[in-house]
C-alpha cells in the first residue's frame, strides 16, 4: 500500500473508501457521544426525540463553527511525521485504513451492547497503535520515535476529566437539593408525561450546553480526521492552507531560526529527518516542492520543534522560541475549511437521529438503581458542558461519554440511590479495554498494510 502512486486508480479507490469510513465513523460517534447530550431531555419527555436530535445537531454545528482546531491537530500530532505525510508524497493509505477501520469496529461493537464507550478513546488508541506500528516497521526505538509527551498529555486529560465530572456533578446535585425546593426536580419521569415548564426549560438549556460543548470538542476531532483524508485525496488542493499562502521568504527565515534548536538536542529519532527538511525548505523557492512534499517537510520541522519545547534539558528561552516558531509554521498545514466543519456536524447529528435509543436507555435507567431524575440530569450536564468546553478551548481532547456518565453516577451517589454495579462494570471494562484493544489492532493493521 505504501507503493500506491498518488494518482493511480487503486490510490483513488482506497482514499475514497477512507473518506467513506471517516463519515461512517462520525455517524457512529453520534450513536455514542451526541446521544449523551439528548439523553435527559428525551428520557424526561421534555422534548420529542426528533425535535431533541435536530436541536442538538444545530447546537453541535454551532459549537463546531465557534470552536477552533486545536483539539483536531492535538490528535493529528500523535502521529510520526513520516506517517502523517509520507516523504515521497504518496497518500497515507495504510494509516487511514488502520485508523478508521479500528476505531469504527470498536465503536460499533460497544454500541451494539448499549455500552457508553468513548469515541475519543477509540481514535487515540488507534493513533498510538499506528505510531507504534511505524516504529516496528522501521526498527526504531519506541522511546524516541513515538511522541510520548504528546500522548501522555492527551491521556491525562482523558483520565482526569471523568473524575472531575463525578465529583463536580455530585457537589452540584447536593447544592441543588439544599437550595431548590421543587419536588418535580427529584421525581423520576412518568411515561408520556411532560414535566412542568420550569423543569422542561432547565433540561432543554442543559441539553443545549452539552450539545454546543460537544461540537466544540468532539467535532474538532472529526475535523482532524476528515482533513487527513481529503489531503490524501487531493494533495495539490488541500496539502497547504489556501487561505494562508506560503511565503517562502518568511518560511526560510523561520526554518533557519529553527535549525540551531533542532540540531542541539538529540532526544528523538527524527532529528536527522527534521534537519534534512530544514535544508530542503531553506531552498524551497528554487526546488519547487510539490504541496504534499512541502507539507511533509514542514511537519518534520514541527516535530523537531515540539521535541525541543518538551525537552527538560532546553532552557526556558529555548522552550519559548521553539513554541513561537511552531506557532508561525502551523497555519500553513493545520487548518479546516468551513465545509469540513459542516460535514463533521452533519455526520454527528444524523448518527444521533438513528442510534440514540440504546445510549439514552442506559443513561436513564442503567447507571443508577433508580431512574434518572431531572435534577440529576441537569447537574451532570451542567458540569459536563463546563468541562468539555474548557477542554475544547485549551486544545485537550476529552470524552463526552465518560464525563456525562461519570456525572450521572456522581448524582446517583449524592442522592443515596446507589449505582447499578452491573452497568458500571460494563462501562469500566470498556474504558479499560478500549485503549489496549485499539492500540494492538491498529498497530498490527498498519504494520501488515504498510
Backbone structural class: mainly alpha
What fraction of the residues are assigned to beta strands by DSSP? under 5%
Euclidean distance between termini CA atoms: 6 Å
Query: How many strands?
Result: 0
Quickly count the domains.
2
Key features?
450 residues; mainly alpha; 2 domains; 76% helix
How would you characterize this protein structure?
By secondary structure, the protein is mostly helical. The chain folds into 2 domains: 9-236 and 338-449, no CATH class; 241-332. It has 19 helices and no strands. The protein has helices at residues 9-43, 49-66, 70-76, 81-84, 93-112, 119-137, 142-145, 148-179, 197-233, 235-238, 248-264, 271-282, 284-287, 291-309, 316-329, 338-366, 374-394, 400-415, 421-449. This is Phosphate transporter. It is found in: Cell membrane; Membrane. It catalyses: phosphate(in) + H(+)(in) = phosphate(out) + H(+)(out).
Amino acid at each position: 500500500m505504501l507503493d500506491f502512486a498518488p494518482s493511480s486508480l487503486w490510490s483513488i479507490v482506497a482514499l475514497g473508501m477512507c473518506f467513506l469510513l471517516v463519515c461512517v465513523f462520525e455517524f457512529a460517534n453520534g450513536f455514542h457521544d451526541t446521544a449523551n447530550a439528548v439523553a435527559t431531555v428525551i428520557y424526561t419527555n421534555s422534548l420529542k426525540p426528533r425535535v431533541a436530535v435536530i436541536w442538538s445537531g444545530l447546537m453541535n454545528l454551532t459549537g463546531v463553527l465557534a470552536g477552533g482546531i486545536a483539539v483536531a491537530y492535538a490528535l493529528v500530532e500523535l502521529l510520526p511525521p513520516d506517517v502523517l505525510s509520507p516523504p515521497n508524497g504518496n497518500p497515507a493509505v495504510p494509516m487511514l485504513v488502520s485508523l478508521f477501520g479500528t476505531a469504527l469496529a470498536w465503536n460499533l461493537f460497544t454500541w451494539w451492547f448499549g455500552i457508553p464507550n468513548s469515541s475519543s478513546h477509540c481514535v487515540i488508541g488507534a493513533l498510538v497503535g499506528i505510531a507504534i506500528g511505524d516504529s516496528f516497521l522501521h526498527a526504531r526505538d519506541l522511546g524516541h520515535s513515538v511522541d510520548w509527551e504528546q500522548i501522555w498529555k492527551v491521556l491525562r486529560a482523558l483520565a482526569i476529566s471523568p473524575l472531575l465530572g463525578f465529583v463536580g456533578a455530585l457537589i452540584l446535585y447536593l447544592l441543588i437539593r439544599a437550595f431548590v425546593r421543587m419536588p418535580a426536580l427529584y421525581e423520576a419521569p412518568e411515561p408520556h408525561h411532560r414535566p412542568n415548564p420550569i423543569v422542561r426549560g432547565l433540561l432543554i438549556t442543559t441539553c443545549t450546553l452539552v450539545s454546543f460543548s460537544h461540537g466544540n470538542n468532539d467535532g474538532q476531532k472529526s475535523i482532524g480526521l476528515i482533513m487527513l483524508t481529503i489531503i490524501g485525496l487531493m494533495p495539490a488542493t488541500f496539502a497547504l492552507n489556501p487561505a494562508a499562502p506560503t511565503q517562502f521568504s518568511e518560511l526560510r527565515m523561520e526554518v533557519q531560526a529553527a535549525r540551531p534548536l533542532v540540531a542541539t538536542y538529540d532526544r528523538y529519532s527524527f532529528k536527522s529527518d527534521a534537519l534534512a527538511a530544514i535544508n530542503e525548505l531553506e531552498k524551497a523557492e528554487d526546488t519547487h516542492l510539490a504541496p504534499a512534499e512541502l507539507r511533509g517537510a514542514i511537519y518534520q520541522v514541527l516535530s523537531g520543534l515540539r521535541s525541543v519545547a518538551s525537552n527538560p534539558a532546553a532552557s526556558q528561552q529555548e522552550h519559548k522560541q521553539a513554541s513561537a516558531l511552531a506557532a508561525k509554521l502551523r497555519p500553513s498545514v493545520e487548518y479546516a475549511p468551513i465545509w469540513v466543519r459542516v460535514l463533521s456536524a452533519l455526520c454527528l447529528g444524523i448518527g444521533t437521529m438513528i442510534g440514540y435509543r440504546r445510549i439514552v436507555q442506559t443513561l436513564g435507567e442503567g447507571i443508577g438503581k433508580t431512574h434518572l431524575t431531572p435534577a440529576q440530569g441537569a447537574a451532570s450536564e451542567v458540569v459536563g458542558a463546563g468541562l468539555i468546553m474548557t477542554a475544547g478551548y485549551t486544545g485537550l481532547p476529552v470524552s463526552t461519554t465518560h464525563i456525562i456518565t461519570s456525572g450521572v453516577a456522581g448524582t446517583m451517589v449524592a442522592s443515596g440511590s446507589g449505582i447499578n454495579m452491573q452497568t458500571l462494570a460494563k462501562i469500566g471494562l470498556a474504558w479499560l479495554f478500549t485503549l489496549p484493544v485499539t492500540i494492538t489492532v491498529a498497530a498490527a493493521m498498519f504494520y501488515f498494510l504498510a
